[in-house]
Write a structure and sequence with these properties.
By secondary structure, this protein is mainly beta. Helices cover 0% and strands 75% of the residues. It is built from no helices and 10 strands. The chain is globular, with a radius of gyration of 15 Å.
């Protein structure tokens, strides 16, 4: 696949009452493969914020890492059957939670890559929400 890609990131969160929140970001970015890992790099300007967030997505096998740097700082690791703790730093303060991953899927085609992770956000032993992140990168011609 080419270096220049159009990236769509769709997040779905369902709380304990079944209420669902969906967010979607579409942005241009870069794609690389190195050492058996797939990388996506892109920048986002969150709504109602001043500043940017640089995103790095790394996928190797069935492990996904999502790193955010800028006005939001976090490193989330999605590994099936595991819970990884993360500190999510925003302009409003620090939040610590667990990422309990159910599954990670990757489908790579000649001109696209799709990554999906299903997971729960946890606080201690409590599940805050069930989530899914879908990341699709398509070659820009």
């Amino acid at each position: 696949m080419t270096k220049d890609v159009l990236i769509t990131v769709r997040g779905i969160q369902r709380d304990e009452d079944g209420n669902e929140a969906v967010s979607e970001t579409v942005v241009r970015g870069e794609y690389y493969e190195k050492g058996g890992s797939r990388y996506l790099f892109y920048e986002e300007i969150p709504e109602e914020e001043t500043g940017t967030v640089k995103h790095t997505v790394k996928c190797r096998g069935n492990v996904l890492e999502l790193t955010k740097k800028g006005i939001v700082n976090a490193r989330m690791v999605f590994e099936p059957g595991q819970t990884h703790m993360t500190d999510y730093a925003t302009s409003y303060g620090m939040v610590r939670f667990g990422v309990q991953t159910h599954c990670v899927f990757t489908v790579a085609e000649e001109d696209s890559v799709e990554i999906r992770a299903d997971y729960a956000l946890t606080a201690g032993e409590d599940i805050l929400s069930e989530c899914r992140i879908l990341i699709k990168a398509e070659a820009v011609h």
